[in-house]
Amino acid sequence: MKILVLNAGSSSVKYQLFNMANNAVLASGMIEQIGEKESMAKIKYKDADDVEHKREQKCAIPDHDEALKWMSQALIHSGVIKDLNDLDGIGHRVVQGGASFQEPAMVNEYVMSEIERLIPLGPLHNPGHLAGMRVAVHQSPNVPQVAIFDTAFHSTLPKYAYMYAIPYKYYDDLRIRRYGFHGTSHRYIVKEAAKYLKQDVNTLNAITLHLGNGASVAAIENGKSVDTSMGLTPLEGLIMGTRSGDIDPAILFYLARKRGLTLDDLDKMLNKESGLKGICGSNDMREITQMAEEGDEKAQLARDMFNYRLKKYIGSYSAVLGRVDCIVFTGGIGENDSGVRLKSCENLENFGIKIDPLLNEMRSSDILQISAPDSKVKVLVIPTNEELEIAMETMEMIEKHH
Ligand code: AMP
User: Gene3D superfamilies given for it (predicted)?
Assistant: First the structure.
């Protein structure tokens, strides 16, 4: 079975083609700067002899229609598919599924209209997903297509965890509540953790830490998400590359009154100019570590703040779960930054959490167990693979519907 995974944004489309017989990536690539004077289109694939090829082209790609045409031609020319009907399915990543989608959905007019209706709750992502989806349906009408929602894994949160303590009418009228994001990644790593620990996922209690440029934590009880740090939008929770995470909401009133900042200014400030970048000028953890090692105090402060916030969430989700079988680190920072792992779990022996400093420094492209042998809670590093999870869920949905 060949499944194509599409992640369409407002000005970019990322794609990966999987052979589901062995989960191998047959081809991958992206088209960026869609709609600009000069766009960049890329494909990477392996030929029958397993030799890797890459092709890049700079040209004007005005819209998603042309972007997907470029991708299809590139896939056909590379020989990984004969034509679009050679695809068994297309899986679309969708960030905001609101309360409407608790699991994957076969794409049809109704599903697309719901994704459109949810744009106010996902203004940065849903319009791009929808543009890509409409074009893919138009260009490949015979290929079954599935929408996979970042929010769906968190649809099991109990109401007392997803409600905000603001007037109830805003939940009734506007569906303001915690939705949570990165669900595909949290789901993937908890399944991988269960396999590694040889435990049924439906009995596994885990705290999963997705630490990339965006970052979130999930508390998982018996394989189901029961709390997560992102909220109505991906702004809440941990300190991120450019997002503030949790702050006192009254800061916004104070800034508006003192500095005359508008709603748009505040939105931009919290989403694009805050987080690690707001503290030390960089949103790239590798660069920040380097700066800190060279004595930059703000870079060190940014790291300390990042680790401290993370530790607070590990503590609070330990309390939420009571029994924690494992903590899983993933994402660019979680998979690579041993210092973040060590500091965020420091002095948590009373919670049953103890990292072995030597194991923590080991590197692996596979799963790494970094907890000390006497640690009650297993601490794992698991590379995430959201695209593969989307492909697997797409395949499951298609098999269910045929
Ligand atoms: P992601 O959004 O998952 O791609 O993660 C991006 C973040 O991971 C950035 O802050 C990167 O600096 C960080 N990152 C990637 N590789 C490393 C590494 N080897 N060490 C520390 N941080 C890394």
Answer: 3.30.420.40
Spatial distance between the Cα atoms of 75 and 27, rounded to a whole number of angstroms: 7
Quick: pLDDT tens for 115-137.
999 999 888 899 999 999 999 99
Residue found by looking up tokens 């030929």 in the block: 47
* 236 annotated ligand-binding residue: no
Pick the CATH number of 199-386 from 3.20.20.70, 3.60.40.10, 1.10.10.10, 3.30.420.40: 3.30.420.40
213 CB under 6 A from ligand 1?
yes
DSSP label at residue 23: T
What is the C-alpha separation between 307 and 338, in angstroms, rounded?
A: 11
Residue 402 scores a pLDDT above 90: no
User: Does an H or E element contain 336, and which?
Assistant: helix 331-336
Task: Tell me which H or E stretch contains 56.
Answer: strand 52-59
Among protein residues, the one whose CA lies closest to atom 1 of ligand 1? 212
CA atoms within 13 A on the CB side of 40: 7
- For the CA atoms of 195, 201, 207, 208, what is the dihedral angle to 10 degrees? 60
Q: How close is the Cα of 43 to the center of ligand 1, in Å?
A: 23
**Which pTM value belongs to this model?**
0.95
Q: How many helices (H) and strands (E) does the chain have?
A: 15, 14
The CATH superfamily assigned to 2-149 is ATPase, nucleotide binding domain (3.30.420.40)
pLDDT in tens, 86-114: 999 999 999 999 999 999 999 999 999 99
Domain limits, CATH 3.30.420.40, in the chain? 2-149, 199-386
DSSP bridge pairs for 379: 327
Identify the active-site residue in 88, 150, 227, 325: 150
d(CA 232, CA 180): 7
- For 160, the 3-state DSSP assignment is helix
Cα–Cα distance between 80 and 229 in angstroms, integer?
40
Q: What is the mean pLDDT of residues 220-229?
A: 98
Q: Give the Å distances, CA to CA, from 155 to 66, 191, 205.
A: 35, 17, 17
Query: Which residues neighbour 213 within 8 Å (Cβ) at sequence distance 6 or greater?
Result: 240, 241, 242, 283, 332
